[in-house]
């Protein structure tokens, strides 16, 4: 049997390259999801506000719809946090750090294998973005329930 055996260093090289690529793809997916959710949230919010301004609805339904709009606005703020660039830190593994260096310092920094640092930094970015998406989706779900309640209250004509 001819062939080369795979060493731990070979696997490390391949795994770091795969992880870096996977993380960049995950970050791109979170940005796409956040953009879609922002568009959805804005559309629903605009629709609810337009309906509230043109339809004669009982006060309790307006109050519940108003709370739902506040929750939707909160979801939009969380989504904006998810897409907001993180440009700080001294992680030595991202473009904000490299932007502060001279050409000579960048060249010196590139002599070391920083892929593990890059994977760590990208992992942190991905986790922060996914946590924000989770919170936003939870808020949107709450807003949908509140809007359904507002519709039921309006349909029933409940007056306080």
Automatic annotation (TrEMBL):
It holds the Pfam family PycTM. GO terms for biological process: defense response to virus. Its main location: membrane. It is found in: Cell membrane. Residues 22-154 form the Pycsar effector protein domain. Keywords: Antiviral defense, Cell membrane, Membrane, Nucleotide-binding, Transmembrane, Transmembrane helix. GO terms for cellular component: plasma membrane. The chain crosses the membrane at residues 34-55, 61-83, 139-159. One of its GO terms (molecular function) is nucleotide binding. This is Integral membrane plasmid transfer protein. It comes from Wenjunlia vitaminophila. The lineage of its organism: Bacteria, Bacillati, Actinomycetota, Actinomycetes, Kitasatosporales.
């Amino acid at each position: 049997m001819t062939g080369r055996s795979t060493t731990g260093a070979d696997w490390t090289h391949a795994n770091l390259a795969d992880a870096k690529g996977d993380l960049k793809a995950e970050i791109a997916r979170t940005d796409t999801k956040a953009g879609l959710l922002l568009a959805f949230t804005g559309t629903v919010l605009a629709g609810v506000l337009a309906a509230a301004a043109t339809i004669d609805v009982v006060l309790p339904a307006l109050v519940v719809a108003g709370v739902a709009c506040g929750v939707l606005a909160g979801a939009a703020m969380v989504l904006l946090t998810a897409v907001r660039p993180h440009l700080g830190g001294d992680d030595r593994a991202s473009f904000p750090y490299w932007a502060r260096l001279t050409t000579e310092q960048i060249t010196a920094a590139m002599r070391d294998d920083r892929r593990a640092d890059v994977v760590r930094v990208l992992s942190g970015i991905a986790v922060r973005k996914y946590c924000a998406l989770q919170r936003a989706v939870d808020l949107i779900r709450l807003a949908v329930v509140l809007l359904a309640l507002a519709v039921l209250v309006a349909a029933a004509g409940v007056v306080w």
